[in-house]
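Incident log, support desk, overnight shift.

02:14 A customer reports that sequence design results differ from what the structure should imply. Their input is reproduced verbatim below. On-call engineer (initials T.W.) acknowledged and began investigating.
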């Protein structure tokens, strides 16, 4: 308020200044809210975490009923796994179904925490890890509902996101004890995690596979 000639003038000027600044701030907040409202929800096809999940050729194994959980259409599902894992940071995750505790969720025999599975759908397969469990639901296409796929993992398999309501049959199998790198045709290098074949095909998404399993250097 430099140059003010009276207290009243100073106070009036201050109020005007505060009003102008407040109006600018309000416009900024409204603009930010508008951007949030009109922005599309996160896509499982975006480059980033999901592109880091290695995509392989179809596998074999047992056909089971599967469903997906999480994502913007399923806000009731937590982003935290049963042992505190951030599933957004570890999108290669699945939940074994059948109960509400580790001891009762045994639809696939009671797999241990972080057990890897090769999951096949629609001509593609991925390696996923058990970081969660759940109660599940009714049969899927006449098959027991045994597994829940984290929505980003389902998206990597190119399963259409249906607001967390998708269900269908998938094939599951345990990868070799030496690791999943050979299963997906990834090139092994000593102590290193191989690049995702799918990600490497697109330079914009090229990055190392996150949460890889040990790779074998030989047959």
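02:41 Re-run completed on a clean worker. Output:
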């Amino acid at each position: 308020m430099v140059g003010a000639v009276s207290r009243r003038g100073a106070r009036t000027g201050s109020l005007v200044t505060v009003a102008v600044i407040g109006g600018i701030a309000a416009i900024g907040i409204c603009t930010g809210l508008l951007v949030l409202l009109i922005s599309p929800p996160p896509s499982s096809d975006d480059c980033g975490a999901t592109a880091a999940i290695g995509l392989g050729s179809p596998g074999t194994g047992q056909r089971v009923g599967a469903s997906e959980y999480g994502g913007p259409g399923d806000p009731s599902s937590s982003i935290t796994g049963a042992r505190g894992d951030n599933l957004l940071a570890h999108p290669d995750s699945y939940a074994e179904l059948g109960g509400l505790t580790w001891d009762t969720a045994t639809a696939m025999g009671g797999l241990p925490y972080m057990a890897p599975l090769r999951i096949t759908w629609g001509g593609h397969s991925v390696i996923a890890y058990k970081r969660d469990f759940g109660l599940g639901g009714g049969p899927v296409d006449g098959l027991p509902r045994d597994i829940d796929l984290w929505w980003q993992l389902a998206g990597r398999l190119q399963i259409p996101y249906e607001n967390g309501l998708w269900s269908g049959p998938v094939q599951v199998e345990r990868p070799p004890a030496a690791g999943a790198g050979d299963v997906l045709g990834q090139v092994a290098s000593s102590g290193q995690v191989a690049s995702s074949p799918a990600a490497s095909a697109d330079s914009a998404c090229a990055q190392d596979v996150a949460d890889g399993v040990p790779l074998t250097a030989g047959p």
